[in-house]
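Hi C.,

You asked whether I'd gotten around to modeling the 105-residue construct. I have! Everything is below, sequence then structure, no commentary in between.
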Amino acid sequence: MTQFALPITQLASVIRSKNAGPLCFTVDLFFRDAAAYERAANSEALQHHSVADCYGLLASQVRRFELPDIWAIKLSMPRSVCAGNPGDGDLYGAQQHAPLLSLMV
């Protein structure tokens, strides 16, 4: 049976980002149930190289942590500008999840 791609926003109950120190940020994806988590975890859209493409990074710069017990995936990546430096448009890293909102899983 072929699965049709769904927007990640239909599978996840929470999609958020925050600083992980001044040089990195994390994106937390919490899924609605085990099936949604499994679908996302196995999706091409959330593999290292695909996430890296969304942010203009190398796949090796994306760290991915799978947390099946809580139906969550955490992604950690370097910031393009150190938090608080000139040119930093998101001091707290709270808007860094936006590139993932349009992903189809």
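If it helps when you're writing up: Residues 34-42 form the longest helix (9 residues).

Thanks,
B.
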